[in-house]
Design goal:
mainly alpha
Length: about 180
Amino acid sequence: QPGVFFDTRWVLLSLSGLFFGFLPTSIAVAITGAFRLSQGGPGGVVGTIVIVVTACVGLGWRYWKDKNNKPLGVIQLYIFGVVVQLSMLACMLLMPAHMRFKIIEMVGPPILLIYPFLTLCIGLILKRQEDRRNAETELIENRIALSRERGLFRGVIDTIPNLVVFKGTRGEYLGANKAFEA
């Protein structure tokens, strides 16, 4: 139908809500919603509703995941994909009466069979990037803590009046305290 098309933007916006949070998703919804409305046609308003609803599904899932401290795995991402697709298809009931069931009949099966896997695949990519960012942040925090503890250790060793020297596992000298140096 002219003015009715399916381009997966709802998948990306739902994943934006799930992985990036409220502000980036709100900006993306505003831009894509305005663009979809400007394209017009009988699906213009419903397409914009799909954009908002699926982004809200992503934001809601993120809130639930964070509140319950639930990790995202393959099964959770697949279920998320199914919920996103079902919410998009439910929005199709808002289409004009003469089109709604014809559209659902035509796009429902492929959307329910293919799009949850698409959502899962993209979600796994985003999850891997999120895990990498978290690991990098943890590494930086651990390096800072290690540096702080090394400084504390060095301060304690240097205040000991006795002679202290420390060696590596192969017998090489690694350092000494101030009393030993003097």
